[in-house]
Write a structure and sequence with these properties.
Blueprint lengths: L4 H22 L15 E5 L22 H19 L3 E6 L1 H4 L4 H13 L3 E6 L13 H15 L5 E4 L9 H14 L9 E3 L1 H4 L3 H5 L7 E5 L11 H12 L6 E5 L18 H16 L2 E8 L8 E4 L6 E4 L2 H10 L3
């Protein structure tokens, strides 16, 4: 039976309140504190075919710059519905940048966000820089500020929408990045901290420093971890040790909001490792996610032309359909979600 919009909103408010209380009690893993888990985030990234580093508008696969709000909503409704039906997801991570938000395209792009939340999905909006410099730093502070002001003005009170100030801030030192986030939080006091995702330092590959900064308390932490970083590792023990070292005692606040492996090359992720670093990697990561009750957002759930994509787009009409590219890969991702 479908719950009413009011009931769904009330449930989300209660979940957010519980999350905030849990973060306050168990954010740093203090002995005796009841640990929070982030396993409620079972998600996929929906990405632009060019990747999300764009100087112009970011347009997730299957959408179009020329679509109206209604057309975008209809397409997104179909895609989001299949993320749930075929993968078991309840969260989608979408890219934003100044060109997407500060211009007229925002009027259409919001259709994708609204279609997701209308189906009970959590939506994580993350800022990607332009590829012009691609230096891991904010491109234009004024445009960045205007972008987040416009986003939070529309969605600041929607408890299904989460905000990730920047994707992979590798151009900043640890101290600089933490200062950037502290400034962002101060500029948006109306946004509950439990709805902010703070990327780890570097390529979001280590969350311990942001976890330890008291100024960022109450936020979620975003970790990225990929198998291609160690193409010669086929020993699961190495993957486990490396993954755990990047989290420290901060698993209770952390969501792995990017991880992925080849899905279109025929690998069997439910089978033996057989000398494959990717199989060893994905099996260990999904096991640890399940054990630690950590949420995750696979990269990507849908991105045309990406061998990591968990689904492929079929049709380009108003109700595009998706085909799962690797059943064993989808199973491992769902296993990590606790399914």
């Amino acid at each position: 039976m479908n719950a009413s919009p009011a009931r769904r909103r009330a449930a989300r408010i209660l979940a957010t309140a519980c999350c905030v209380l849990g973060l306050a009690a168990g954010a740093t893993g203090t002995a005796g504190a009841k640990p929070l888990d982030t396993s409620g985030f079972r998600g996929v990234n929906w990405a632009d075919p060019r990747d999300n580093y764009a100087s112009d508008e970011v347009v997730p696969s299957g959408l179009s710059k020329t679509d109206s709000y209604a057309a975008t909503y209809a397409k997104a409704r179909s895609v989001i519905g299949q993320f749930r039906a075929k993968l078991g997801a309840n969260t989608v991570r979408l890219p934003v940048n100044p060109a997407t938000v500060n211009g007229t395209f925002w009027n259409s792009y919001t259709g994708a966000i609204d279609a997701a939340t209308a189906q009970g999905f959590k939506v994580i909006l993350g800022y990607w820089e332009s590829p012009t410099a691609k230096d891991g730093r904010i491109d234009d502070t004024a445009a960045f500020t205007a972008m987040w002001n416009r986003i939070t003005a529309r969605y600041g009170r929607d408890d299904a929408v989460y905000f990730e100030p920047m994707n992979e801030p590798f151009g900043y030192t640890s101290q600089q990045w933490r200062d950037v986030v502290a400034s962002w939080l101060a500029a948006h006091p109306q946004v509950p901290r439990a709805r902010v995702f703070v990327d780890g330092t570097g390529y979001a590959d280590d969350v311990k420093a942001v976890c330890a900064d008291n100024r960022l308390g109450g936020t979620h932490l975003a970790l990225h971890f990929y198998g291609f970083w160690h193409s010669d590792w086929t020993d699961p023990a190495k993957w486990r040790a490396d993954f755990d070292a990047r989290i420290g005692n901060c698993a209770s606040r952390t969501v792995l909001d990017e991880f992925g492996a080849s899905m279109t090359t025929g690998l069997n992720y439910d089978g033996p490792v057989n000398g494959s670093n990717e199989i060893a990697y994905l099996q260990v990561v999904t096991d640890r996610l399940r054990e630690l009750r950590m949420g995750s957002v696979y990269w990507p759930g849908l991105r045309t032309g990406d061998t990591f994509s968990l689904t492929a787009l079929q049709g380009n009409g108003s109700a595009p359909t998706l085909r799962v590219t690797n059943a064993s890969g989808a199973h491992r991702v769902a296993w990590g979600w606790g399914s």
